[in-house]
Design goal:
The complex is a heterotrimer. By secondary structure, chain B is α+β, with helices and mostly antiparallel strands. Helices cover 17% and strands 21% of the residues of chain B. Chain B has a domain of 68 residues: Alpha-Beta Plaits (2-Layer Sandwich), CATH 3.30.70. Chain C has 2 domains: 185 residues, 3-Layer(aba) Sandwich (Rossmann fold); 111 residues, Rossmann fold (3-Layer(aba) Sandwich). Chain C starts with 11 loop residues before the first strand and ends with a helix. The chains are: A alpha/beta, B alpha+beta, C alpha/beta. Bound molecules: iron/sulfur cluster (3 copies). One iron/sulfur cluster binds next to loops of chain A.
Chain lengths: 294, 103, 387
């Protein structure tokens, strides 16, 4: 009689390569981000969404701006573009119009997309440019050492708000939904599966698909605002996140106060013609009319 | 054997009075068994994998990598507890860990 | 007479506006994406592009500001399109940020600046040439730039095509430094048959699968490198940060030096083939005017008037203010006893002229929103001869 082989998981096995390495540039690791930074988690989610996507890999394009999240593009084994501060969406718009068959994802930070690039954000949402835009919100300017920005909660301390921030932050999903985006979501770095699923959905959506991902930034935001350890902010998201896909977006501003909840969900998923579709229709009409204006 | 719900109550994940459903055909399913793989040099010891592993399979090892970070290891006695849920891989910001089912 | 009948420009002779001629030239050069923001006195270019580009299968899109339109051009360029925008002073200032991006990423694109008067908002409807130095030094860091300066409607058309060809060849942003007079003026335009127009297209990088893994993606020892186009599988990181031969960011001094030398060198090493200028009455000239754009029209009249007065005057018209044709100016300065630099600003191109001259140089400057009068240029000639 042959004794049945006993299967065992065994101890941890040390290896050189990761199952996601085909979508990244492993020769560039370790990345520049601080321990516990949520940006890497979002990159992982994006990478797995790409692996699952039926869209040809060569058509997947990653564009980022400047700042900590701006570095994302450089770690992806795609046609990737690290552009100027705030202009990633405008850059992406030009590319998307010239080649509508591309699946373009803009990954950038809150300062980049919501502050210096805020004008491009709202207008791209208004035009409903068919792009995926992932905004990693760490509540401050991390790359420059921790200054307050347009998403820094009221009262939060940073190097440029040492006595507490006196500015009211933007509630970005509310803003982008009001501007007209086809898809609007908010999740946190703790909601990795939901982030991956949302990215997959964003790749299907025609039009402007936007997701805010709240992210721990232990050394610059966390340190001065009660979340110094990487786990602190992750546990806050775990404990205080409330999933509400039908939330009244006007009331979902984030305070990061330990008692206050964080509303997350896929808030908007609607059909509106995309900018590229409308431009395509326009060209078809003009050509059918032999170039006549009426 | 305790039910999933009982385990959850014990871990304080759900309250004792919570109504849960147990599949009645558990016999049809087999629990996956997976092995954990790490790329030690990429780890930054953020604590996420061992904190958020739902089966409590992982812990910090005593070994350090070239950057001085302790990477994860499988807890003694937990060698057969990884169910390939993918949480460690998903939550790791560094592409430093993943699990794969044992064939 | 319609220049197009709703399709490609039809060869023939027309009476048209400079800004319109520019758009027809762009279409013939292969441009199919316009991204802009309206601004006087360039708006006719945008308006005509909005009519014409969809007729030839292209797009003319309006962005929220000039920061956005310039960024969109770089994105469009990496999608493989030939791209353009048109603007004027205030818009040009806003574009400086992403002009630097186009330069750093080596994205071919064409920017037309229909210059107007004054700093800040100035006088939007009136002529100026106050952005000439900005074209060279406006974006931060050291940039080597290519700029053309048209003096007529025909030249606005010709140089727009030339600007696209240079942009494609050198993979860099190229400026057409027009001005309100040239942009709004109506003149004869000859559109030649398409087969007589030289059109240059960029080299495109192979997909990653066909690339030699050992070979650097960007071999900066070479001046002209194939461009990775989005969606074609080259899988390249294109970076605004100083980057190495794989396109990865680096703070290494050698990497910086190699990249900067490459970006400048690809233009500097070929400046003699880029330089374009026109000489009038220089053979026996004792005094010469250096001018460009619409001011050169005044300068030509001044040369004629001076000759009528017995002054042996000539004109060197700079068609490419940048890269500055230093040897041409230097040679001229050895022949004449004085140079007058006539421009509709308070003295910009006079600086490189003086830097390269061996004779006295004076400026003829007047920039209240009108062309400088020939009389003022003749006065300056007399003054420099007397020096
Ligand atoms: S500063 Fe904050 S956002 Fe930037 S890498 Fe560090 S943790 Fe991440
Ligand atoms: S796959 Fe799941 S069960 Fe296995 S170690 Fe990772 S987190 Fe734990
Ligand atoms: S999640 Fe990744 S980086 Fe963090 S401790 Fe685990 S293996 Fe290391």
């Amino acid at each position: 009689m042959i004794s049945p082989q006993v299967k065992t998981g065994g101890p941890v096995v040390k290896v050189q390569h990761h199952v996601n390495d085909e979508v990244i540039r492993p020769e560039r690791l370790p990345n520049i981000w601080c321990p516990g930074c949520g940006i890497g988690i979002v990159v992982g989610a994006y990478v797995r969404a790409i692996q699952k996507s039926p869209i040809a890999r060569d058509r997947q394009i990653s564009i980022s701006g400047i700042g900590c999240t701006g570095r994302v593009s450089g770690y992806l084994n795609l046609d990737s573009y690290h552009t100027t501060h705030g202009r990633a969406i405008a850059f992406a718009t030009g590319m998307a119009v010239a080649r509508p068959e591309l699946e373009i994802t803009v990954i950038a930070g809150d300062g980049d997309l919501g502050v210096i690039g805020g004008n491009h954000l709202i207008h791209a949402a208004r035009r409903n440019v068919d792009l995926n835009v992932i905004m990693v919100n760490n509540f401050n300017y991390g790359m420059t050492g921790g200054q307050h920005g347009g998403t820094t909660p009221l009262g939060a301390k940073t190097h440029t708000s040492p006595y507490g921030n006196v500015e009211t932050p933007f509630n970005i999903p509310y803003l982008v939904a009001a501007a007209g985006a086809s898809f609007v979501a908010r999740w946190t770095a703790m909601h990795v599966r939901q982030v991956t699923a949302a990215i997959s959905r964003m790749m299907e959506v025609k039009g402007f698909a936007f997701m805010e991902v709240l992210s721990p930034c232990p050394p610059t935001f966390g340190e001065f605002n009660g979340y110094p350890d990487p786990l602190d902010m992750m546990n806050y998201f775990k404990d205080k996140a409330v999933v509400d896909n039908n939330a009244d977006l006007s009331g979902i501003g984030v305070t990061t106060h330990p008692e206050d909840s964080v509303v997350v969900g896929n808030f908007v998923d609607r059909k509106r013609p995309s900018y590229q579709e409308l431009l395509g229709d326009l060209r078809a009409r003009v050509s059918a009319q032999g170039g006549a204006k009426k | 054997m305790r039910t999933t719900a009982q385990v959850a109550v014990q871990r304080k994940e759900i309250g004792p009075g919570t109504i849960t459903r147990e599949p009645i055909n558990t016999g049809k399913f087999s629990k996956p068994l997976a092995r954990v793989y790490i790329i030690p040099e990429r780890c930054k010891e953020c604590d996420y994998c061992w904190t958020f592993c739902p089966n409590d399979v992982l812990e910090m090892s005593d070994e350090i990598n070239a950057s001085g970070y302790h990477h994860p290891k499988v807890k003694a006695g937990k060698e057969n507890d990884c169910v390939n849920c993918g949480m460690c891989q998903a939550v790791c910001p560094e592409f430093a860990i993943y699990a794969k089912e044992v064939a | 007479m319609s220049m197009s009948k709703g399709g490609m420009p039809i060869p023939g002779d027309y009476f048209t506006m400079g800004n319109f001629a520019c758009v027809e030239g762009a279409i013939l050069a292969g441009c199919r994406l316009y991204a802009g923001y309206p601004i006087t006195p360039s708006s006719e270019i945008f308006e005509r592009a909005s009519v014409r580009f969809p007729q030839v299968g292209g797009n003319a899109i309006e962005m929220e500001d000039e920061l956005g339109s310039m960024a969109a051009l770089v994105g469009g360029s990496f999608a493989g399109a030939k791209v353009m925008t048109a603007t004027s002073g205030p818009g040009f200032s806003l574009m400086m940020e992403n002009i630097g991006l186009a330069y750093m990423m080596e994205a071919p694109c064409v920017l037309v600046n229909v210059q107007r008067a004054g700093p800040s908002t100035g006088v939007p409807t009136l002529v100026g040439q106050g952005d000439m130095m900005q074209a060279k030094w406006g974006s931060h860091g050291d940039l080597e730039t290519i700029a053309y300066s048209p003096s007529s409607v025909q030249e606005f058309f010709d140089l727009t095509i030339q600007a696209f060809n240079s942009a494609e060849k050198f993979r860099t942003p190229v400026f057409v430094m027009a001005d309100q007079v040239v942009g709004m003026m109506w003149e004869k335009l000859h559109i030649p048959p398409a087969e007589e127009i030289e059109v240059v297209d960029r080299q495109v990088m192979e997909p990653a699968s066909k690339l030699d893994k050992e070979h650097p993606l960007f071999d900066y020892a070479r001046d002209f490198l194939p461009m990775p186009i989005a969606g074609m599988g080259s899988r390249v990181n294109v970076d605004s940060l100083t980057h190495d031969s794989r396109g990865y960011p680096s703070t290494d001094h050698d990497v910086s030096e190699i990249l900067n030398r490459h970006l400048m060198g690809k233009i500097k090493n070929h400046e003699k083939e880029i330089w374009r200028w026109e000489e009038s009455n220089l053979d026996d000239a004792e005094v010469a005017v250096v001018s460009y754009g619409s001011a050169a029209r005044s300068a030509l009249a001044a040369v004629k008037n001076a000759r009528a007065k017995g002054i042996k005057a000539g004109l060197l018209r700079l068609i490419t203010p940048w890269p500055f044709p230093d040897e041409i100016v230097e040679k001229l300065s050895r022949k004449v006893s004085g140079l007058v630099v006539a421009e509709v600003n308070y003295g910009q191109m006079i600086h490189p002229v003086r830097e390269n001259s061996r004779c006295p140089v004076v400026g003829a400057n007047w920039a209240p929103g009108a062309l400088i009068e020939p009389r003022a240029i003749v006065d300056a000639m007399q003054a420099v001869v007397a020096e």
